[in-house]
Here is the input.
Amino acid sequence: MSKSGCLYLNDELEKYSKTLGIDLFGVADLSSAENFVTRQGGEHVGGFPRAISLGIRLIDDVIDQLISHQDHVAIASYRGVYDAANQALDRASLMMAKKVQDQGYNAYPIPASSMLKNGNFEAVFSHKVAANLSGLGWIGKNCLLITPQYGPRVRLASVLTDAPLQTGTPLTNRCGKCTQCVDICPSRAITGVAFSPDEPRNVRLNAQRCDDYTTERMEVFGNANCGLCVHICPYGRNSRGK
Ligand code: SF4
Ligand code: SF4
Here is the structure.
């Protein structure tokens, strides 16, 4: 397909994503992450050259209230918004995959939440890596995707594809000297080390500590993490009005 044909398909899919309630749309070239993607998701998943990244912005007022992370109402609202965003993303990625398939290409939707049961807190596919490669944001010290518009106040899903789409350019990390997510984490799970694609996640995040803290709270608050690392990021707190 010619470059103008690729751009036409990108535009068409981005416009379609808006009709599905998607706030952020990007396309990642996965070639630099092929080994990582294959290790996580296996040969089929690792065989796709590109991923369409889809993001839904969370609700600011709910995330703002997470400063009261011991409050039942605040956590129940957070869990509700988080689950509803995941459901909306799962439907959107299905519809997007159908649209791509109708154009004659392969498409493989990956749900918003797809944890492997391997004890390593890993997903089938890293939506964050795809969103980073597609140019939607960078991976922050809290190991979340940080978007310039909404900080980490987003949920993500992906559609793997071989459609000849124009891919984005990764954003450079803008965390700088900020350590707000490190300082606020009650379980001391975030180490403060900046993201590097060559280092494993455990250099930056002790996922077991976060999980232990979430489990401790489970009896009172159900299965919802405290969300303070989402709440505190200045890129999200300054996003109102965007
Ligand atoms: S969810 Fe809470 S405990 Fe887990 S990393 Fe974020 S701030 Fe720390
Ligand atoms: S709180 Fe600061 S260090 Fe943490 S992800 Fe946001 S900008 Fe980066």
